User: Which sequence fits this backbone?
């Protein structure tokens, strides 16, 4: 997954997604962005996977997040914080995708036509009662739960990553855990 993502990223970057930038400057920006983003691709992909529960959708979300990150890259002040910055972008992309799911009606297909491919996120979440219950949470609640328990992130760091007050993170986590408990008891 990572090499495919990086090659696509490099291709997009090469085609001038930045807009008008001096050619030499664009080449330096591209090299630096790809080098720094590469370090965080695996974690960003896993975050998207656990938020969305689907490997294919996680790849698409990561692609979209990387494109957004590249466009915003020239305005980035502290390049040492690319990990948290990329996590925030991935979380926002996933939140949008989760919300869009609720607006889309799905139609069942004949099971004989279904293609079965191994999906590490779907399989892990389906085996786990908590994983199955995650679908009942709002996008905001799900992001907080995944960052707290799958990424083992302290609440203060979650607030910083999501750029929301600490009280909001605590509230979302509280109500999410309450709802998860109700779902698991069913």
Assistant:
């Amino acid at each position: 997954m990572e090499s495919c993502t990086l090659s696509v990223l490099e291709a997009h970057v090469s085609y001038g997604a930045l807009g008008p930038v001096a050619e030499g400057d664009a080449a330096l920006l591209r090299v630096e962005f790809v080098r720094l983003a590469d370090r965080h691709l695996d974690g960003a992909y896993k975050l998207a996977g656990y938020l969305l529960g689907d490997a294919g959708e996680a790849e698409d979300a990561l692609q979209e997040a990387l494109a957004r990150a590249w466009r915003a890259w020239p305005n980035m002040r502290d390049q040492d914080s690319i990990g948290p910055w990329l996590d925030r972008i991935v979380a926002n992309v996933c939140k949008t995708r989760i919300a869009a799911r609720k607006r889309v009606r799905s139609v069942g297909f004949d099971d004989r036509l279904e293609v079965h491919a191994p999906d590490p996120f779907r399989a892990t979440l389906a085996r786990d009662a908590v994983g199955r219950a995650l679908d009942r949470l709002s996008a905001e609640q799900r992001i907080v739960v995944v960052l707290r328990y799958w990424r083992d992130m302290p609440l203060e760091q979650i607030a910083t990553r999501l750029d929301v007050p600490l009280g909001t993170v605590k509230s979302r986590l509280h109500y999410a855990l309450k709802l998860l408990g109700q779902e698991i008891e069913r």
